[in-house]
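To: structure desk
From: M.T.
Subject: fold request, one chain
Message: Could you run this one when you get a chance? Sequence is below, nothing fancy, just the single chain.
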Amino acid sequence: MDTSDKFGLSQDIYRMRREKSRSGCLLMVVVLGAAALAAALAAGWWWWNKADDGVEPAAPLELPEAPVEGDLPAEPVPEAAPAEAVPVPAPLPPPPPPAPMPQPEPEAAAPAAAPVDSPAPEAEAPAETVAPPADAAPAPVAEELPAPSGGDADALMAQAREKQSVGDLAGARGAGLEALAARPGDPEIEAFLSKLDMDLLFSPNPMPEKMEYTVQSGDFLGKIAATYNTPVLLIAKANGVRGDNIRLGQKLVILDGRNHVFAVRVSKSRNDLVLTLDGKFFKRYRVSTGTNAGTPAGVFKIVDKIEHPTWFPSGGRSIPYGDPGNLLGTHWLALDRPGYGLHGTWEPESIGSQSSAGCVRLLNEEIEELYTILPKGTVVTIVE
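Reply: Done. Structure tokens follow.
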């Protein structure tokens, strides 16, 4: 065997072993490096899961700053809005209020000790105990309250005249009636109302007792007057109608005599007549009554109305209208007591005295006014 080949082969074998050993070391290094990297990744994953634990950390809650004075915010906190989606159980009913304490016996018995005819100031006494202090501002509504019926008649009359000046006749009448209630029988207030009421009644101006009517097919003034228990002449005068000339669809202002009633009261001692509407003053007239209290007292009704009447004196011939001997004037309102009634006169100087034969006399223009206003069936009360 050739030594050179032997040594050469030995060197090749040695070289191969060395290369193999180096390759093994490199492989070991690679394996250990991969293991170390895997271990590092595993450790990192474990620490990540431990710190995160799968839950995202909640954002810190920002609380509003507390108010300085401790006042609650005027509006609800926006975060409370989602609560609408969650049903809220109904609140428990509040406990029943405690029973009121019984009033002490001395206070309950105090009103009974007051005399029956004692004046009203005692009822006003509690108002003084709860009145505001002198320096307190007055309540704003106090100035808007209407004056009481027993208030200042002069102030109420000033209101009435102001309303009349601007054409509010119904408002002026209301204020005038309040003034008359505050000062009953005042001749100035009565004179104001007497003229105002006639201006209001004999015009299309509105008033609470009037209504609006639309003329229908087949209507005529007599039919409308009978329906609403009001005289034909009153409808015609208030609406400026001449004769019976009304047209289909025409608007008429009518005093509704079905629901609003005129009445007459005659005083024999004062020789006056007061006309009322629904019990409220409307106008006062001066009259003459019978000599020696010959006018009968009592409650009567108007049963007939005659223009240009003929007089039938007892035991004599009839005297036609226009004859100087006819004492009935221009109009006659017969009462349900035969031979008696209200009528005019040709002797105006006799008004205000007891000078008739028993009837109630008025000036011709004033009996004509009553003839126009009063329907049949109007109640006439005659007192001593």
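Reply (cont.): Residues 170 and 208 are 8 Å apart (CA to CA). Let me know if you need anything else for the meeting.
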